[in-house]
DNA sequence: TTGACAATAGAACGGTCGTTCTATATAGTA
DNA sequence: TACTATATAGAACGACCGTTCTATTGTCAA
């Protein structure tokens, strides 16, 4: 820990301000979009000047990229990390889906799943932000598929299972749950998603 | 048909201009969002003045609502209408899902499924646009559920099927297909979605 | 031909955007 | 105490936003 009144202390202070900015930025962006996120709005809500915000990033695009990274860290902490306590294979796959749905239902971000919002917003906007968001969501999709492959290798699910296909379907249920809840405000979307996951995993275990 | 040089003719001319505006507006909004849609941009792309566009709607919100309605008409024409030729029940349900996926794959709108983009963009923005989009997507969801109920009544699918649950899952596959295609540009997303639908309907027929 | 009206254009407004330039307050080093 | 560096503020810029006001154009009815 840096002591008060040193260069390191000041740098730590700046880093803390930066974290404070990004915490709000990720929350706002999940609800109003990464493009709808404005420096003036951030400044007003934080009681700072626009310049005070801007100086930490240097451009709007860098702010957006930093915001995406912040959301990534939250996702790792809230969704990925808890699932890592489970043994690899079916158990961990179930834990990944459970903690993911919990994180959406808990409204960790104001606008639901940050990456659902960001990926759909940027899917038609070429640039670094889009590439970064696409790479991160792909990494998560790959993690699901990889875990399915493990479960298959451990014979926890049927040998005929195609990991990418099953990952597609499971991913779809969670995204649909997030979508339906945000649009209709109906929490039963989560039980539908959970039931779809349970049923699908059961059929993947049974099918010859 | 109104004759040239009459009041009706002029009204028809204005209506045609309006349709031209909305055609572009729906296309742009599907890719860049209903909020990202700007009057200046429309004017530039159509070679008109901002006022010339604006006068047709009176406010940005009315333009957005009219754009949503335009997208609704396209959806009715391209997705709903073709499916109505099939007999009610399982056949029609399959036709609805097929024509829906085809419409996404055909890129009828630049940004993929208009309502997928619009509903996710507005899910956290209260107002008339959000309400309208939510009502329209709900109507489509209800139509799917209703068709499933018909299929169940006709004993085409298992009596234990819960229509709302099955509708949730089928809807999820198409949305996921749209999402994966737009984000990764990978057409295999559509075959995954088709396969998921086929398998799910088969299991709904089989299950005791 | 004249006067009314509908469709569109042009110029301008206040507001906000991202961004830049120039302070200033604070706390370091010398 | 003087000088330096950092974090933040304030004012301003040009661009674009939605919107309004005031023409202009073309076609109608009289």
Task: Give your account of this protein's structure.
2 copies of one chain form a homodimer. The first copy, chain A, is built from 9 helices and no strands. Chain A is mainly α. The longest helix of chain A has 26 residues. Chain A is elongated and about 60 Å long. In chain A, 39% of the residues are buried. The mean pLDDT of chain A is 94. Chains A and B meet through helix 1, helix 6, helix 7, helix 8 and helix 9 of A and helix 1, helix 6, helix 7, helix 8 and helix 9 of B. The first copy, chain A, binds a DNA duplex (30 and 30 nucleotides) through helix 1 and helix 3.
Helices, strands, pairings?
2 copies of one chain form a homodimer.
Chain A: H1 7-32, H2 39-46, H3 50-54, H4 60-83, H5 90-105, H6 114-122, H7 128-153, H8 163-184, H9 188-206
Chain A binds a DNA duplex (30 and 30 nucleotides) through residues 5-7, 9-11, 13-14, 17, 38-40, 48-56, 59-60.
Please name the defining characteristics of this protein.
homodimer; 208 residues; mainly alpha; 75% helix; DNA-binding
Mean pLDDT of chain A: 94
Number of H/I helices of chain A = 9
What pair of chains forms the biggest interface?
A-B, 40 and 40 residues
Secondary-structure content class of chain A: mainly alpha
3D shape of chain A: elongated
Strand share of the residues of chain A? under 5%
**SSE string of chain A, helix = H, strand = E?**
HHHHHHHHH
| Oligomeric composition of the shown chains | homodimer
The strand count of chain A comes to: 0
Task: Tell me the Rg of chain A in angstroms.
Answer: 20 Å
Percent helix range of chain A: over 70%
In this structure, how is the largest beta sheet of chain A organized? none
Ranges of chain A with pLDDT <50 over ≥5 residues? none
Q: How far do the termini of chain A sit from each other?
A: 58 Å
């Amino acid at each position: 820990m840096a002591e008060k009144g040193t260069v390191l202390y000041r740098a730590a202070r700046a880093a803390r301000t930066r974290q404070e900015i990004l915490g709000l930025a990720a929350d706002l962006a999940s609800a109003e979009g990464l493009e709808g996120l404005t420096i003036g709005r951030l400044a007003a809500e934080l009681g700072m000047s626009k310049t005070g915000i801007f100086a930490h990033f240097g451009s709007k695009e860098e702010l957006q990229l930093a915001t995406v990274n912040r959301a990534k860290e939250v996702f790792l902490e809230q969704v990925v990390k808890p699932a890592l306590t489970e043994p690899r294979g079916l158990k961990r796959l179930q834990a990944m889906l459970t903690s993911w749905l919990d994180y959406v239902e808990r409204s960790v971000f104001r606008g639901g799943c940050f990456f659902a919002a960001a990926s759909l917003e940027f899917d038609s906007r070429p640039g670094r932000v889009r590439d970064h968001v696409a790479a991160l969501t792909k990494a998560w999709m790959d993690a699901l598929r990889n875990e399915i492959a493990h479960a298959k290798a451990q014979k926890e699910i049927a040998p005929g299972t195609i990991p990418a296909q099953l990952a597609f379907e499971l991913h779809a249920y969670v995204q649909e749950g997030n979508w339906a809840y945000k649009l209709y405000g109906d929490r039963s979307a989560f039980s539908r998603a959970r039931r779809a996951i349970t049923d699908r995993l059961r059929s993947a275990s049974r099918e010859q």
